[in-house]
Amino acid sequence: MQLRPGRLMSEILLVRHAEYAGTRHILLGRDDGVGLSEAGQAQAAALERRLRGEQIVSIESSPRLRCIETAAPLAEALDLPLLIEPALEEIDFGAWTGQSFESLTTDPGWSSWNKRRGWARPPGGETMAEAQRRIVQHMQRAARRDPEGSIVMITHAELIRAAVLHCRRLSFEAWSQIDIAPCEIVRLTFDAGETTEPSRQPAGLGPATT
Q: Stretch 131-160: mean pLDDT, rounded?
């Protein structure tokens, strides 16, 4: 991309956390009692090797343990502080937190939420629109704060989906078109507060999981 002289670009790398035990089976949500599995630790190490040569100026993480453990190797390798950012927190799934996906298939509310992500709310939880608002506003603030270099944000699949839907100007009902694998990187370039079309880099560490 050609830039005009004096023009500043900020790049945000949204990264889904690495795998934890039960990634394919449990809606962990904001449950913080589970760290990375052995496979997830290997994914986090591979992520560090992949990004260590980039001009990263800041590393942020969701407060969840699985995100912190994903971000820690990169922060240590680059000798950068690991910033815990509440705006990168997982969607609040309320009463669904910790349930198996198999058990949720019999819940009419779960079916409604997956069909109508734009307005449906998990019981006692947060809508996708609310989650999208906080991640987009945070990315905009971060881009103004660090107008040069790359900002790494370790977060969750639903937050990354919400950001991509916003950048592509797609409705929430298009969520199922966007599958985010563990440790997959989505790059967003900010130019004077505007985002470009996101580019995605598959993790290259095996098949995508839900």
A: 92
Tens digit of pLDDT for each residue in 59-81? 999 999 999 999 999 999 999 99
pLDDT at 97 over 80: yes
What pTM, to 2 d.p., does this model score?
A: 0.86
Is 11 in contact with 150 (CB distance < 8 Å)?
yes
Tell me if residue 180 falls in helix, strand or coil.
coil
Whole-angstrom distance, CA of residue 119 vs CA of residue 113:
8
Mapped onto helix, strand or coil, the DSSP state of residue 74 is: helix
Query: Could you count the other beta carbons within 10 Å of the beta carbon of residue 164?
Result: 22
User: 62: which residues sit within 8 A by CB, 6+ positions away?
Assistant: 17, 68, 84, 85, 88, 89, 90, 154, 155, 156, 159
| Domain locations along the chain | 9-201
What CATH number labels 9-201?
Answer: 3.40.50.1240
Tokens of 30: 């904001």
As beta bridge partners, residue 83 has 60
List Cβ neighbours of 54 (8 Å cut-off, separation of 6 or more): 150
What are the distances in angstroms from CA 84 to CA 10, 69, 153, 168?
Answer: 20, 12, 10, 27
Cα(65)–Cα(136) distance, integer angstroms: 22
Q: How many CB atoms sit inside 10 A of residue 25's CB?
A: 12
102-137 pLDDT tens trace: 999 999 999 998 888 878 899 999 999 999 999 999
